[in-house]
């Protein structure tokens, strides 16, 4: 490597070890700005702000070109004949080769160290991370006067250094390094950054290890005081638990526990569990054999046919050993043999990370990145993890911890040979119950006295049920419902005809199911069949009413009968699920017993229920979104109306997984308009929570459904909504293609509003890609179309977007003029959320002119309106800017209050911007 750009300390440029001098501070600021965004066009407006943060001189543009020319000449020896610094897209671009920046080399070594740590190699991790932290020569760019936007980028560099320092400490503690060697470095970190709870926890652990218990407890009091003074908050739950462990001498010797939530997700153990003593002993032995080894993760697999009791055994044992794993329990049903699709590993990781306390906004987009974060969080935890109903090894492997002292239990119909071979999982194959265990299971249901009276009948019932726990529980439920009937009558009924489970090896329990099914009342039998039309995983009473066409009281009565007979389970209050075998059986029955027109009518009512519940709920969640025109409700609709915003949010939270399945099923069963319209509605819930993978999945189905139906309006809408998800997932090229397709369709339809909305999205995409001039061009086109269409709300919001971009380009007076035009329109139509956004843009423009007092007043008005419309995210954004101008006015208490309120909102939303608000607080106190 001939050329080296050094950012991790004072700015340095060298070639073959010889430093290249730079002419002036302005040249150095220019180079730093370009190096922080290598191989990317940096706009002239941003560079002008860096060079002249207060007020650029009239000759600023000419001076910038002069500085660029001087910098190009200074770098020429390092360019090796190439044009390293070039003009591009209204700005300038600096070409940097891989490895030329010390920052890139630092990131590569840190990644290697973190991989080693998560892979159970703490010594290697400590060595790599020591190299990484040793690359820092001081504060980043410490020889330059920093200002926005350069200051924010430098703060991000400092955050990377601190994370590496904490990872280095974690690796050294895990490797058994003498704790005293770790303490000095951690002291330096917490002295400079007193709000970093992870570093404080590591320091407490290190002090405890050397026997300085009072020092560890004093460190806790120090962090508690710092947090109270600077944020008004108490230490997090992990730090509190560590303090309690130290106080009672329970702290372990394996280093830190990552900060986060302590989940307790294990479902309750199955009632009436009997027997399996031998299997429980085998699991105990596997745990004992795997405990205590370096980086030990104990993995046990429980395999067997459907209905044999794999989940019951896993939960029974997990509860029995849970007290050995103080950091909590994770449980996830992977639905590997569900009638619907099995849970994708990426989605499973999203659920597990949320359970571990990672806010949705901080969960990575890719499956590999999620696996890395998941394994990092578990590296020093002791947890029980139950992965239930796995399809195969490929589904499970990304969900396994890389190192640490966790216990993983996997259940599957598959024997998971690859998991046993590659991960040293301990296998346990489950067989049917023994005769004695089966008898005890019936006794748990029916009472010992009833069992002892008719031993021959009990033996006949057990034999007919094939000793299968699922079949026995269904049989027992029916017998228990008729306490005066002799058991011999039930045994005779089961023995009649072909009642025995001839195909038991294949998991065929149809005869037992049919016996229970035929004993149902006609309404309950009808509902059981109709449940086979639902995609799962669970239903409500309102859904039962929609499937049958009955009133809610009749549907609830039938559900209660099915619950009593154990043909459905009320796994949450008001929500019912079925074993996958029972759902398959119901699907067979409805296909054979119900005419096609009856099935289609039931599906129509089902999709009508979801669309006309989802649509008004979507309007409550996002009243500012331009709605689609939904399919008219049926004359008798079974929609479940929601009363307010909170109820709408609860409904979407509960139905999220169901809705994704419903969208797919509606598309596959000929109800394409329902599919794309439900997809539009659910996006009002998914997008604000950063659930971009779900949104992309729903909108891809919607696009295909609308195309099959020849519905151009649906195609345009779904393409536009899919583009929004692709932008957030980083698929900018695909987003451009989708927006182009949407625009063509809207043009064919003559839909001016749709065209304008699509061009507005293009404005956002161009701005995200660092192309503000291109963004302005799209914005102007969108504005003309909104005016032609006569949509004042769209006109006002597009004007605001244009004004905002002008403000970010430093064209503050032009921005003010445009935003006032937007505000007048919004005031006339009472678009209060639009007014809030425009007042925020006006505040940004006035702040750019140095009129901080005026900016503060505008921000205060904006915050009130955002709060009134429950737009918490944008309220937090504006609070952050309010803090900036209060600080510029010297009103430090008011600035701290604004930033603190912003951080609290971001925390509630699970958005990583909370860290930036706290960094402002830290800077203010320093």
Task: Describe what this molecule looks like in 3D.
This protein has 926 residues and is mainly alpha-helical. The protein folds into 6 domains: 1-177, Orthogonal Bundle (Arc Repressor Mutant, subunit A), CATH 1.10.10; 277-429, P-loop containing nucleotide triphosphate hydrolases (Rossmann fold); 435-518; 522-594, Winged helix-like DNA-binding domain superfamily/Winged helix DNA-binding domain (Arc Repressor Mutant, subunit A, Orthogonal Bundle), CATH 1.10.10; 595-710, no CATH class; 791-926, Alpha Horseshoe (Serine Threonine Protein Phosphatase 5, Tetratricopeptide repeat). The protein is 63% helix and 6% strand. It contains 41 helices and 13 strands. It has a 5-stranded parallel β-sheet with strand order 8-9-10-7-11, sandwiched between helices. The relative contact order is 0.05. The model is unreliable at 253-260 and 497-508 (pLDDT under 50).
């Amino acid at each position: 490597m001939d050329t080296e750009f050094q950012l991790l300390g004072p700015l340095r440029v060298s070639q073959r070890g010889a430093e290249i001098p730079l002419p002036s501070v302005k040249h150095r600021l220019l180079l730093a700005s370009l190096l922080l965004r290598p191989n990317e066009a940096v706009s002239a407006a941003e560079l002008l702000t860096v060079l002249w943060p207060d007020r650029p001189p009239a000759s600023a543009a000419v001076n910038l070109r002069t500085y660029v020319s001087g910098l190009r000449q200074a770098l020429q020896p390092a360019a090796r004949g190439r044009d390293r610094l070039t003009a591009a897209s209204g700005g300038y671009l600096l070409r940097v080769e891989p490895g030329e920046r010390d920052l890139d080399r630092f990131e590569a070594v840190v990644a290697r160290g973190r991989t080693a740590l998560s892979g159970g190699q703490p010594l290697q991790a400590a060595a790599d991370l020591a190299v990484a932290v040793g690359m820092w020569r001081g504060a980043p760019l410490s020889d330059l006067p920093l200002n926005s936007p350069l200051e924010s980028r430098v703060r991000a560099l400092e955050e990377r250094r601190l994370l590496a320092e904490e990872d280095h400490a974690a690796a050294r503690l895990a490797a058994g390094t003498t704790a005293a060697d770790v303490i000095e470095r951690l002291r330096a970190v917490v002295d400079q950054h007193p709000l970093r709870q992870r570093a404080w926890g590591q320091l407490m652990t290190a002090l405890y290890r050397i026997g300085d218990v009072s020092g560890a407890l004093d460190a806790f009091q120090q962090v508690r005081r710092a947090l109270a003074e600077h944020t008004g908050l108490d230490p997090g739950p992990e730090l509190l638990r560590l303090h309690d462990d130290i106080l009672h001498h329970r702290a372990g010797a394996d280093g830190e526990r990552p900060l986060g939530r302590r989940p307790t997700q294990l479902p309750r153990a199955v009632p009436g569990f009997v027997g399996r003593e031998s299997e429980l002993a085998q699991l105990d032995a596997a745990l004992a054999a795997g405990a205590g080894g370096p980086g030990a993760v104990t993995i046990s697999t429980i395999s067997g046919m459907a209905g044999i009791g794999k989940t019951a055994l896993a939960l029974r044992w997990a509860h029995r050993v849970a007290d050995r794993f103080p950091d909590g329990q994770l449980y996830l049903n992977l639905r590997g043999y569900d009638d619907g699709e099995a849970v994708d590993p990426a989605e499973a990781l999203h659920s597990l990370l949320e359970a571990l306390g990672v806010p949705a906004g901080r969960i990575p987009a890719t499956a590999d990145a999620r696996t890395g974060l998941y394994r990092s969080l578990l590296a020093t935890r002791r947890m029980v993890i139950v992965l239930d109903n796995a399809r195969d090894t490929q589904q499970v492997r990304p969900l396994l911890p890389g190192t640490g002292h966790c216990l993983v239990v996997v259940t599957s119909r598959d024997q998971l040979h690859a998991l046993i071979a590659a991960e040293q999982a301990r296998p346990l194959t489950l067989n049917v119950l023994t005769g004695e265990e089966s008898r005890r299971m019936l006794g748990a249901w029916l009472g010992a006295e009833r069992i002892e009276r008719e031993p021959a009948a009990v033996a006949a019932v057990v034999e007919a049920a094939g000793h299968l726990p699922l079949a026995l529980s269904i049989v027992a439920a029916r017998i228990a419902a008729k306490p005066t009937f002799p058991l011999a009558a039930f045994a005779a009924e089961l023995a009649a005809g072909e009642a025995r489970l001839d195909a038991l090896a294949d998991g065929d329990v149809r005869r037992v199911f049919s016996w229970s099914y035929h004993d149902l009342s006609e309404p309950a039998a009808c509902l059981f069949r109709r449940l086979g039309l639902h995609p799962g995983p669970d239903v409500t009473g309102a859904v039962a009413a929609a499937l049958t066409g009955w009133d809610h009281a009749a549907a609830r009565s039938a559900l209660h009968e099915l619950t009593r007979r154990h043909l459905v389970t009320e796994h949450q209050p008001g929500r019912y699920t079925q074993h996958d075998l029972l759902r398959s059986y119901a699907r067979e029955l409805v296909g054979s017993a119900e005419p096609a027109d009856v099935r289609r009518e039931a599906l129509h009512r089902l999709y009508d229920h979801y669309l006309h519940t989802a649509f008004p709920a979507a309007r409550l969640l996002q009243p500012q979104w331009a709605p689609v025109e939904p399919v008219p409700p049926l004359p008798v609709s079974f929609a479940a109306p929601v009363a307010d915003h909170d109820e709408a949010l609860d409904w979407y939270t509960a139905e999220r997984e169901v809705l994704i399945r419903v969208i797919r099923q509606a598309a596959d069963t000929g109800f394409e308009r329902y599919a794309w319209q439900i997809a539009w509605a659910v996006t009002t819930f998914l997008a604000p929570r950063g659930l971009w993978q779900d949104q992309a999945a729903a909108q891809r189905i919607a696009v295909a459904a609308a195309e099959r139906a020849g519905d151009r309006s649906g195609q345009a809408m779904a393409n536009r909504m899919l583009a929004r998800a692709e932008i957030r997932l980083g698929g900018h090229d695909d987003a451009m293609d989708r927006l182009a397709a949407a625009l063509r369709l809207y043009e064919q339809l003559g839909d001016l509003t749709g065209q304008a909305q699509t061009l507005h999205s293009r404005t956002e995409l161009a701005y995200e890609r660092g192309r503000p001039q291109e963004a302005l061009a799209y914005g102007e086109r969108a504005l003309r179309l909104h005016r032609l269409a006569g949509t004042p709300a769209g006109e006002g919001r597009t004007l605001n977007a244009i004004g905002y971009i002008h403000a970010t380009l430093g064209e503050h007076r032009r921005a003010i003029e445009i935003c006032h035009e937007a505000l007048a329109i919004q005031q006339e139509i009472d678009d209060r959320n639009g007014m809030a956004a425009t007042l925020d843009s006006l505040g940004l423009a006035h702040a750019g002119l140095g009129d901080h007092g005026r900016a503060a007043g505008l921000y205060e008005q904006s915050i009130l309106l955002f709060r009134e419309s429950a737009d918490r995210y944008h309220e937090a954004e504006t609070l952050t800017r309010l803090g900036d101008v209060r600080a510029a006015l010297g009103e430090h208490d008011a600035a701290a209050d604004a930033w603190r309120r912003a951080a609290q909102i971001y925390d509630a939303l699970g958005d990583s911007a909370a860290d930036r608000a706290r960094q402002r607080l830290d800077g203010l106190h320093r």
